Protein backbone atom coordinates (compact mmCIF):
# COMPACT_ATOMS: atom_id res chain seq x y z
CA UNK A 1 0.00 0.00 0.00
CA UNK A 2 1.33 3.39 -0.93
CA UNK A 3 2.06 5.85 1.87
CA UNK A 4 -0.47 8.40 0.54
CA UNK A 5 -3.21 5.71 0.43
CA UNK A 6 -2.35 4.62 3.97
CA UNK A 7 -2.48 8.23 5.18
CA UNK A 8 -5.88 8.74 3.51
CA UNK A 9 -7.23 5.53 5.09
CA UNK A 10 -6.01 6.50 8.57
CA UNK A 11 -7.37 10.06 8.21
CA UNK A 12 -10.76 8.75 7.06
CA UNK A 13 -10.96 6.27 9.96
CA UNK A 14 -10.07 9.02 12.44
CA UNK A 15 -12.74 11.32 11.01
CA UNK A 16 -15.37 8.61 11.15
CA UNK A 17 -14.43 7.71 14.72
CA UNK A 18 -15.45 11.24 15.75
CA UNK A 19 -18.89 11.00 14.16
CA UNK A 20 -21.84 10.93 16.49
CA UNK A 21 -24.28 9.61 13.89
CA UNK A 22 -26.26 6.52 14.69
CA UNK A 23 -28.70 4.84 12.32
CA UNK A 24 -32.39 4.84 13.24
CA UNK A 25 -34.31 1.56 12.85
CA UNK A 26 -36.90 1.23 10.09
CA UNK A 27 -40.42 2.29 11.18
CA UNK A 28 -43.36 -0.07 11.47
CA UNK A 29 -45.31 -0.25 8.22
CA UNK A 30 -48.67 -1.74 7.29
CA UNK A 31 -49.30 -4.46 4.71
CA UNK A 32 -50.56 -1.75 2.32
CA UNK A 33 -47.38 0.26 2.91
CA UNK A 34 -45.25 -2.77 2.12
CA UNK A 35 -47.18 -3.47 -1.10
CA UNK A 36 -47.25 0.14 -2.33
CA UNK A 37 -43.67 1.01 -1.29
CA UNK A 38 -42.49 -1.88 -3.47
CA UNK A 39 -44.11 -0.11 -6.45
CA UNK A 40 -42.44 3.27 -5.87
CA UNK A 41 -39.12 3.92 -7.66
CA UNK A 42 -36.03 3.70 -5.51
CA UNK A 43 -32.65 5.34 -5.94
CA UNK A 44 -29.19 4.96 -4.54
CA UNK A 45 -29.27 6.92 -1.30
CA UNK A 46 -26.45 9.35 -0.67
CA UNK A 47 -25.29 8.38 2.86
CA UNK A 48 -25.33 11.93 4.20
CA UNK A 49 -29.09 12.14 3.48
CA UNK A 50 -29.87 8.99 5.47
CA UNK A 51 -31.89 8.89 8.70
CA UNK A 52 -29.58 9.37 11.71
CA UNK A 53 -29.80 9.96 15.44
CA UNK A 54 -27.47 12.88 16.18
CA UNK A 55 -26.64 15.53 18.77
CA UNK A 56 -29.31 18.25 18.40
CA UNK A 57 -27.82 21.18 16.44
CA UNK A 58 -30.98 23.31 16.64
CA UNK A 59 -31.43 24.27 20.29
CA UNK A 60 -35.22 24.01 19.84
CA UNK A 61 -37.62 22.32 22.28
CA UNK A 62 -38.17 18.55 22.07
CA UNK A 63 -41.01 17.69 19.71
CA UNK A 64 -40.18 20.50 17.26
CA UNK A 65 -39.46 19.98 13.56
CA UNK A 66 -36.82 22.22 12.00
CA UNK A 67 -36.11 22.30 8.26
CA UNK A 68 -32.72 23.64 7.20
CA UNK A 69 -33.38 24.53 3.55
CA UNK A 70 -29.75 25.42 2.82
CA UNK A 71 -28.31 22.13 4.09
CA UNK A 72 -31.37 20.10 2.95
CA UNK A 73 -32.00 18.45 6.32
CA UNK A 74 -35.09 18.09 8.50
CA UNK A 75 -34.54 17.65 12.25
CA UNK A 76 -37.02 16.20 14.69
CA UNK A 77 -35.87 17.26 18.16
CA UNK A 78 -35.87 14.60 20.89
CA UNK A 79 -35.20 14.71 24.62
CA UNK A 80 -31.63 14.60 25.99
CA UNK A 81 -30.30 17.03 23.36
CA UNK A 82 -30.72 14.51 20.55
CA UNK A 83 -32.45 14.81 17.18
CA UNK A 84 -33.28 12.61 14.24
CA UNK A 85 -31.89 14.07 11.03
CA UNK A 86 -33.48 13.26 7.67
CA UNK A 87 -32.39 14.29 4.17
CA UNK A 88 -35.00 16.31 2.25
CA UNK A 89 -35.66 18.02 -1.05
CA UNK A 90 -36.80 21.63 -0.68
CA UNK A 91 -38.37 24.39 -2.74
CA UNK A 92 -36.24 25.77 -5.52
CA UNK A 93 -35.19 29.39 -5.17
CA UNK A 94 -38.25 30.78 -6.93
CA UNK A 95 -40.70 28.81 -4.77
CA UNK A 96 -38.94 28.40 -1.43
CA UNK A 97 -40.88 29.12 1.72
CA UNK A 98 -39.70 29.87 5.26
CA UNK A 99 -41.63 30.49 8.42
CA UNK A 100 -43.17 28.93 11.49
CA UNK A 101 -46.22 26.73 11.24
CA UNK A 102 -47.91 23.75 12.83
CA UNK A 103 -49.09 20.36 11.64
CA UNK A 104 -52.88 20.68 11.38
CA UNK A 105 -53.56 17.49 9.46
CA UNK A 106 -51.87 14.14 8.81
CA UNK A 107 -52.72 11.75 5.98
CA UNK A 108 -51.58 8.31 4.82
CA UNK A 109 -51.18 7.86 1.05
CA UNK A 110 -53.00 11.17 0.47
CA UNK A 111 -54.69 12.31 -2.72
CA UNK A 112 -52.92 15.19 -4.49
CA UNK A 113 -54.90 18.14 -5.74
CA UNK A 114 -52.40 20.69 -7.06
CA UNK A 115 -53.15 24.32 -6.13
CA UNK A 116 -54.37 26.73 -8.83
CA UNK A 117 -50.99 28.52 -9.04
CA UNK A 118 -49.25 25.24 -9.81
CA UNK A 119 -51.86 24.31 -12.45
CA UNK A 120 -51.34 27.72 -14.08
CA UNK A 121 -47.55 27.12 -14.28
CA UNK A 122 -47.83 23.48 -15.36
CA UNK A 123 -51.15 22.74 -17.06
CA UNK A 124 -50.28 19.03 -17.26
CA UNK A 125 -50.52 18.53 -13.46
CA UNK A 126 -53.80 17.09 -12.28
CA UNK A 127 -55.58 15.48 -9.37
CA UNK A 128 -53.93 12.16 -8.45
CA UNK A 129 -55.48 9.54 -6.18
CA UNK A 130 -53.30 8.39 -3.28
CA UNK A 131 -51.02 5.49 -4.12
CA UNK A 132 -47.58 4.54 -5.43
CA UNK A 133 -47.66 6.99 -8.37
CA UNK A 134 -48.78 9.97 -6.31
CA UNK A 135 -46.24 12.84 -5.92
CA UNK A 136 -47.10 13.16 -2.17
CA UNK A 137 -45.91 9.61 -1.52
CA UNK A 138 -46.71 7.58 1.57
CA UNK A 139 -47.58 10.35 4.05
CA UNK A 140 -48.31 14.07 4.19
CA UNK A 141 -48.14 16.52 7.07
CA UNK A 142 -50.19 19.64 6.29
CA UNK A 143 -48.67 22.93 7.48
CA UNK A 144 -50.89 25.72 8.77
CA UNK A 145 -50.15 29.22 10.10
CA UNK A 146 -52.84 29.61 12.75
CA UNK A 147 -55.98 28.30 11.02
CA UNK A 148 -54.80 29.15 7.49
CA UNK A 149 -53.52 26.36 5.24
CA UNK A 150 -50.12 27.44 3.87
CA UNK A 151 -50.57 24.93 1.00
CA UNK A 152 -47.11 23.61 1.94
CA UNK A 153 -46.58 20.06 3.09
CA UNK A 154 -43.94 17.76 4.45
CA UNK A 155 -44.52 14.67 2.36
CA UNK A 156 -43.08 11.59 0.70
CA UNK A 157 -42.10 11.43 -2.94
CA UNK A 158 -42.20 9.32 -6.05
CA UNK A 159 -38.85 10.90 -7.05
CA UNK A 160 -36.43 9.75 -4.32
CA UNK A 161 -33.43 10.58 -6.51
CA UNK A 162 -34.15 14.28 -5.88
CA UNK A 163 -33.55 14.14 -2.11
CA UNK A 164 -30.85 16.69 -1.33
CA UNK A 165 -31.89 19.05 -4.12
CA UNK A 166 -33.90 22.29 -4.35
CA UNK A 167 -36.58 21.17 -6.79
CA UNK A 168 -40.04 21.41 -5.28
CA UNK A 169 -42.64 24.17 -5.42
CA UNK A 170 -42.00 24.87 -1.74
CA UNK A 171 -42.99 21.59 -0.09
CA UNK A 172 -40.51 19.53 1.89
CA UNK A 173 -40.05 16.11 0.27
CA UNK A 174 -38.72 13.09 2.14
CA UNK A 175 -37.99 9.50 1.22
CA UNK A 176 -41.20 7.55 1.80
CA UNK A 177 -39.74 5.39 4.57
CA UNK A 178 -38.48 8.57 6.30
CA UNK A 179 -41.81 10.39 6.11
CA UNK A 180 -43.48 7.27 7.55
CA UNK A 181 -40.98 7.35 10.42
CA UNK A 182 -41.61 11.07 11.06
CA UNK A 183 -45.40 10.66 10.69
CA UNK A 184 -45.34 7.93 13.36
CA UNK A 185 -43.46 10.21 15.77
CA UNK A 186 -45.36 13.52 15.48
CA UNK A 187 -48.80 14.62 16.58
CA UNK A 188 -51.19 17.33 15.45
CA UNK A 189 -50.07 20.85 16.40
CA UNK A 190 -46.38 19.91 16.26
CA UNK A 191 -44.40 23.12 15.71
CA UNK A 192 -42.54 23.31 12.37
CA UNK A 193 -39.83 25.90 11.67
CA UNK A 194 -38.59 26.22 8.09
CA UNK A 195 -35.37 28.21 7.89
Automatic annotation (TrEMBL):
Entries under PROSITE patterns matching the protein: LD_TPASE, PROKAR_LIPOPROTEIN
Keywords noted in UniProt: Cell shape, Cell wall biogenesis/degradation, Glycosyltransferase, Hydrolase, Peptidoglycan synthesis, Signal, Transferase
Gene Ontology CC terms, in alphabetical order: extracellular region
Gene Ontology MF terms in the entry: glycosyltransferase activity; peptidoglycan L,D-transpeptidase activity
Pathway this chain belongs to: Cell wall biogenesis; peptidoglycan biosynthesis
CDD domains attached to this UniProt entry: YkuD_like
L,D-TPase catalytic domain: residues covered: 63-195
Single GO biological process annotation from the record: regulation of cell shape
Catalytic residues identified in the record: 155 (proton donor/acceptor), 171 (nucleophile)
Signal peptide: 1-17
Database matches in InterPro entries: LD-transpeptidase, LD_TPept_cat_dom, Transpep_catalytic_dom
UniProt record similarity statement: Belongs to the YkuD family.
PANTHER family: L,D-TRANSPEPTIDASE, L,D-TRANSPEPTIDASE ERFK_SRFK-RELATED
Protein name, as recorded: ErfK/YbiS/YcfS/YnhG family protein
Provenance organism: Microvirga vignae
Amino acid sequence: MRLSSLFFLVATMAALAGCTYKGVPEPQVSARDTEWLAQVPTSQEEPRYGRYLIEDPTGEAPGTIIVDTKQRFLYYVLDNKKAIRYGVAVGDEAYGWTGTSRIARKAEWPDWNPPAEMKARWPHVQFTKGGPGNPLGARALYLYEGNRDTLYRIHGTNEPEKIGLAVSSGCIRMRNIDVIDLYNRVSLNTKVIVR
